[in-house]
Write a structure and sequence with these properties.
34% helix; globular; alpha/beta; Rossmann fold; 191 residues
């Protein structure tokens, strides 16, 4: 009886321990290493007020990323999450599948270059807990003038979560939401 109680206690500790989304430092061929508590950058990209009112987003990456079986789901997560943040902050937003070259309107072309990711959904985390592994995102967002393509700047985002956090470990939707919240907070401040 004590053995069963001990196993249940240890299992509960693994499943119900929490972990925050964390940026990661990574080297080629390794999983992200935990560094801090949130994906922060030293200085936000300075986007002119006129360009901060409209965002056109495009996602890309190397061949192995864009040909991954869950790439369409990953892009949809970014599109939907960023659209929600744009609506909340009063910023016009559109998502394109082909890079927009230039436009007659003021705005920001936001190119998300995904170097690597591992998508873990909420359902998988709840059903399989620690067995799902770590969710992570390694992406760079470039901000450019929608009129002429001139670069305003770029930010690197590296997030990771530990599967050992069990069902409370941050998953891909929460990581994308954290990135989106920061991006649109900075754009709203520029408006």
């Amino acid at each position: 009886m004590r053995t069963i109680a001990l196993v249940i206690t240890l299992t509960a500790a693994v499943l119900f321990g929490g972990c925050a989304t964390q940026p990661a430092g990574r080297s080629e061929g390794t999983a992200p290493a935990v560094v801090e508590a949130a994906p922060r950058v030293a200085v936000p990209v300075a986007v002119p007020a006129a360009s901060a009112r409209k965002v056109v987003m495009f996602m890309t990456g190397p061949k192995q990323v864009v040909e991954a079986k869950d790439w369409a789901d990953f892009k949809r997560e970014w599109r939907d999450t960023f659209a929600d943040h744009a609506k909340t902050t009063g910023i016009a937003f559109s998502f394109v599948d082909v890079a927009a070259l230039t436009s007659a309107e003021d705005g920001t072309l936001m190119t998300v270059e995904v170097a690597d990711y591992r998508m873990i959904g909420i359902g998988a985390r709840i059903l399989f807990g620690v067995m799902t592994g770590n969710a992570y995102i390694d992406a760079k967002i470039k901000y450019a003038n929608l009129r002429d393509g001139s670069l305003f700047g770029e930010q690197q985002y590296q997030t990771s979560s530990s599967a050992w956090g069990g069902i409370f470990a941050k998953v891909t939707p929460q990581q994308v939401n954290t990135i989106g919240a920061e991006v649109f907070s900075n754009l709203k401040a520029a408006k």
